[in-house]
Amino acid sequence: xxxxxxxxxxxxxxxxxxxxxxxxxxxLAKKGAKVVxxxxxxxxxxxxxxxxxxxxxxxxIKAAGGDAAANYDSVAxxxxxxxIVKTAVDxxxxxxxxxxxxxxxxxxxxxxxxxDEWDLVLxxxxxxxxxxxxxxxxxxxxxxxxxxxxxxSGAGLYGNFGQINYASAKMGLVGMMHSIHTExxxxxxxxNTIAPIAASRLTEDVMxxxxxxxxxxKFVTPLVTYLVSEDNQDSGMIFNCAAGWFSRTAVMCGxxxxxxxxxxxxxxxxxxxxxxxxxSLDDIKVLNNVNDSFGYLAKIFS
Length: 302
Ligand code: NAI
Known about the structure:
- By secondary structure, the protein is α/β, with parallel strands linked by helices.
- The protein has eleven helices and ten strands.
- The strands form two sheets. It has an eight-stranded mixed β-sheet with strand order 3-2-1-4-5-6-7-8, sandwiched between helices. Strands 9-10 form a two-stranded antiparallel sheet.
- The mean pLDDT is about 95.
């Protein structure tokens, strides 16, 4: 088995001061990458800030003989994102890898959710990934090389009670991935998304202790490490990962059915009658791009 190496590569890991992000930063550095360890150092709900979390991870990387630079900006502002990328360029000359990992929680059920709770969670997860990726993408495009991982969640992919802000942001990251995948294709920029489950401060009070114990973040790290390596040639994919379980998941399209001829009106009653065919997942396919969905309309457009 050939060893995966990050010699000569520069990585940005957001929210790398703790939890999953910390494991990515340590592993990439161990395998030769120069790493920007970004972390705001705030509380689980996004309040507060501290340099301690990022500094400790940088110290740990350096003590093990690796190379790293700390950054304490919030990903949630355009200036913060720009400065995170600038930290990489100033310290190491470029950016090859971005892992959009920084995250917070402000859970509430739909009716109780405040605008502030909605806005901050969207700002950190969704805008944050964009604010870091946009300036990084410009550099990757110049260098015709890039590996990006977005962090979604089963809450967004499949649903969860009390997380409408978080679920919306996380599914937004899947849409963002599809765009990066499409626009990055000709520049050798690959973007994939993970939906992890891991023991961290985000999950410590929502999981029973016996389950929490088995979900060490270290079981997610190898997938992310592979996805951001040169060896990985796949892009636009979504993966579940937890406790050593790795599985691809996808937004898919059924064959469906055709009603009418593209000229006559279609009635709601016809939809009702055809409901079984409309909702069928037979012959389900992953589409590579929205244009692929036009293939299903061939009957009308040919
Ligand atoms: P964590 O709380 O241990 O780590 C998140 C890190 O992000 C913290 O160190 C925090 O200071 C940092 N951070 C928060 N806001 C920031 C900001 N505005 N700018 C820069 N850094 C910021 O949480 P964990 O579990 O390691 O989460 C990592 C990612 O994985 C998050 O995006 C989370 O939503 C996602 N995730 C985690 C799951 C789990 O089971 N732990 C499940 C699904 C998704």
